Amino acid sequence: MILDTFRLDDRVALVTGTSRGLGQGAAIALAEAGADIALLDRGDASETADAIRALGRRVLVLQRDFASASPEDLTSAVTEVIEQLGGLDILVNNAGTIRRAPAVDYPAGDWDDVLRVNLDAVFHLSQAAGRHMIAQGSGRIINVASMLSFQGGILVPAYAASKHAVAGLTKALANEWAASGVTVNAVAPGYMATDNTAALRADVEREKSIVARIPAGRWGEPADLQGVFVFLASAASAYVTGTVIPVDGGWLVR
Length: 254
Description:
Elements: E1 12-16, H1 21-32, E2 36-41, H2 46-54, E3 59-63, H3 71-85, E4 90-93, H4 108-136, E5 139-144, H5 157-177, E6 182-189, H6 198-202, H7 204-213, H8 223-233, E7 244-247
Parallel strand pairs: 1-2, 1-4, 2-3, 4-5, 5-6, 6-7
Helix pairs in contact: 1-8, 3-4, 4-5
């Protein structure tokens, strides 16, 4: 039955940035589909963990600060998931950060911080997970890209650069790992009502102009991404790799 191909029973997923927002929504969706979940976050992911336990799934909570974590720190997190939950089948690279300033004045420290969290951590986690997935002959890696994987944005040069790079990395890894049964895809959320967009939503004129361009007429919510995460994590997407899937209420086609 086709619906059975979307089930994630007996799978283990590692999701980053899970204390709230898109990462929390992704982790809960994967658990609802049957997966056990490892939560990797710099903050308190206990609310997400409780929701997963309430679904009857196993949950492992790990802490790393991507702004300071070394490649070895991130590799050890993957190793810990495999040892404690018995494997790793799905990686969702969701954690991200944003800093706003005019490009001509953009602080070097902000540039480094954004690239370290949004790109370096994605690569190092994918590399560590990929080694395990290639050895077992299967796996799903899902990166969180952005509308700014396609566009330049305003006052966010580091964020735009990092999200363009995430799209490129997704394609590069997909090319190398597809023959080993490992798919690598990305989800590109549109304008979502999350902490990262709080400043935009607080700017009355900017918020109005954004919503006016979205054919759906509203900001997205974490729930709007849950179906795509489950699809890309499941057997239903076995022949889908190297894609960047917009979930944007029609923003890109406007």
